[in-house]
Amino acid sequence: MDRSGNAEVGAVTHILTLPSGEQMHFQLELRQRRTIGLKITPSGLVVHAPKRISKGQLETIILQKASWISKKLQALSARQVPELQWQHGEQLWLLGQYVTLDIEQNVRTKAVQHVPGKLLLALPEPHDREAVARKVVQWYVKQAKEDFLRRLEILSAKLGVPTPVLLISNARTRWGSCNSKKEIRLNWRLYQAPPHLINYVVCHELAHLKEMNHSARFWSVVASLYPDYKEAEKSLKAWSPKLHAM
To answer: What residue ranges do the domains of the chain occupy?
Structure first.
């Protein structure tokens, strides 16, 4: 989730050549804000900047922070999780627990089934990685929507607000967002995380229904729903590379 509480804004990829000759790739998101924010995500550097910033101002800030950015990107690379192979026996995360992908050949494609410790999938071409990935992700998205909606209903009642509209996000840089229409977006990849972390993200976004910012009053609302939110934030960052592998 970002620190603005706003809905997602499309990012544009840019390249900046450093004095050393090295090229730094980053995603630029222009927003209604006064300062520049630098964020290291699983997909690399994301820069949040005011809509009217000049190219020169932007490059100057990035160059000043180049050493810090490089160290963070190197640390991120060291934590990278191996790419999923989408094959029989693959281990996936589901609500914080490992499940094994069990793929069999069948003349007809069958819906993904979850049994204790396994995700069962039958396809005419079980070695077609794209087909396997597509079916599994579709299942995760569907299950995530049902799961997140239940949590929204319970936690919004606790906060004393109507259950907001839920939209499922496929964002690469954010777990959730809330906009002025009181719509909440939640990233389907969160369905891989332990339930308490899903609850934290839901609480975070619900708090924006009362405070569309990250002021002390906002965090007070978060704490009323999820007292241990600081620890949850740290844990979510640690889980992030694993969740983004899918």
So the answer is: 12-78, 91-243
